[in-house]
C-alpha cells in the first residue's frame, strides 16, 4: 500500500490537572510519560466484553483504552471531583484503590484524499486500528502490574450473574487469563487468598472511601482488578472501569435483566443502582479474602452499608 500523508491533531482534556497528577504519581514525571507514549502497540485485553480498542506502551507502564461517547461525557462531567478526590488522598497520605488515570485525549486523523479503498476500520468501533480518517477518544491509565510477575488475574464485581470464565478455569497455568468472581469463589475452597489483617483492613478502608465517592457521582459497574504475584508473595489491587455513570441505558439494562427476560436463574443483575452496587461490591470483596492473624484480636470487616 502506498504511503499516505496524514495530519493528526490531539486535544488534551484537563491538561493542567493531569500534568499535576502525573507529577505526583509517575516516577520520572512528564518526560517519562511522554517517552512511554511514543511507543505503543495494539493490545488484546482479555478481561472485558466491550469492543473497545486497547493498546499498551511497549515499556508496559501504561494502558490506552478507547472511550465511547457516553463514557467520555461521564468522565468530563465528574473529572473535577476525581481530581479533588485524588488530591485529598495524596495530601492526607491515605491510600486510594482507584487506578490512576494519566490523561484523556481526542485524536483526529486526516489523510490527503481520505482513506484508501479497503482500509481497516478505526478503533472506537470497530475492529482494526487507526487507519482511516476520523476521531478517537482515549483514556491513558496506569498498568498496576508493571514490572511484576503476575501468575493469576481476577476481575471482581461482586455479582453472581455470568461471572465464571470456563476457559480460565480449564487453563489454570495461563497467567494472562482473567478469572471472575465465581472462579475465585471456587478456588478459595482449596487455595484461599490470604492477607494479613492490618493490610486487609487498610485496603477495606481505602475501598470504602473510593466506593462511597463513586456512588456519590452515580458511578457503577466498576471492578476490583487483583493480581497475584507469587514471586514476591503479594497481591496488587486497583478499582478499574469507573468511568460510566448510571444513565438511562444502564437503568434499562437493569430492568431487563432483573425481569428474567434474558434468563439469569433469578440472580441479581450485574448492573444495579450505584448505591446497591456499592453495597454488594463491598460485601463480596470482604468475603473474598481470608484474614491471616497478626497477633491482635481479629476485627470484623467493615459494614457494607457504611457511608
UniProtKB/TrEMBL annotation:
Pfam families: PIP5K (PF01504). InterPro entries: PIKfyve_PIPKc (IPR044769), PInositol-4-P-4/5-kinase_C_sf (IPR027483), PInositol-4-P-4/5-kinase_core (IPR002498), PInositol-4-P-5-kinase_N (IPR027484). Residues 1-289 form the PIPK domain. Keywords: ATP-binding, Kinase, Nucleotide-binding, Transferase. This is PIPK domain-containing protein. The lineage of its organism: Eukaryota, Viridiplantae, Chlorophyta, core chlorophytes, Chlorophyceae.
Amino acid at each position: 500500500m502506498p504511503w499516505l500523508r496524514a495530519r493528526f491533531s490531539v486535544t488534551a482534556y484537563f491538561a493542567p490537572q493531569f500534568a499535576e497528577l502525573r507529577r505526583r504519581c509517575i516516577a520520572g514525571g512528564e518526560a517519562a510519560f511522554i517517552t512511554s507514549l511514543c511507543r505503543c502497540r495494539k493490545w488484546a485485553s482479555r478481561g472485558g466484553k466491550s469492543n473497545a480498542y486497547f493498546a499498551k506502551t511497549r515499556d508496559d507502564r501504561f494502558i490506552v483504552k478507547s472511550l465511547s461517547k457516553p463514557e467520555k461525557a461521564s468522565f468530563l462531567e465528574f473529572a473535577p471531583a476525581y481530581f479533588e478526590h485524588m488530591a485529598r488522598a495524596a495530601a492526607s497520605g491515605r491510600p486510594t484503590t482507584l487506578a490512576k488515570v494519566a490523561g484523556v485525549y481526542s485524536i483526529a486523523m486526516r489523510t490527503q484524499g481520505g482513506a484508501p479503498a479497503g482500509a481497516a476500520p478505526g478503533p472506537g468501533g470497530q475492529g482494526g486500528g487507526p487507519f482511516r480518517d476520523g476521531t478517537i477518544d482515549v483514556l491513558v491509565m496506569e498498568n498496576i502490574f508493571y514490572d511484576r510477575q503476575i501468575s493469576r488475574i481476577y476481575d471482581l464485581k461482586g455479582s453472581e450473574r455470568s461471572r465464571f470464565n470456563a476457559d480460565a478455569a480449564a487453563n489454570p497455568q495461563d497467567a494472562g487469563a482473567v478469572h471472575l468472581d465465581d472462579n475465585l469463589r471456587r478456588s478459595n475452597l482449596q487455595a484461599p487468598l490470604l492477607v494479613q489483617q492490618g493490610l486487609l483492613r487498610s485496603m477495606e478502608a481505602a475501598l470504602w472511601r473510593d466506593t462511597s465517592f463513586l456512588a456519590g457521582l452515580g458511578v457503577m459497574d466498576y471492578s476490583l482488578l487483583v493480581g497475584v504475584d507469587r514471586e514476591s508473595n503479594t497481591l496488587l489491587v486497583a478499582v478499574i472501569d469507573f468511568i460510566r455513570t448510571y444513565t438511562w441505558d444502564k437503568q434499562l439494562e437493569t430492568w431487563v435483566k432483573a425481569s428474567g427476560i434474558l434468563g439469569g436463574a433469578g440472580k441479581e443483575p450485574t448492573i444495579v443502582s450505584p448505591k446497591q452496587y456499592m453495597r454488594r461490591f463491598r460485601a463480596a470483596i470482604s468475603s473474598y479474602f481470608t484474614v491471616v492473624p497478626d497477633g491482635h484480636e481479629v476485627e470484623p470487616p467493615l459494614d457494607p452499608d457504611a457511608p
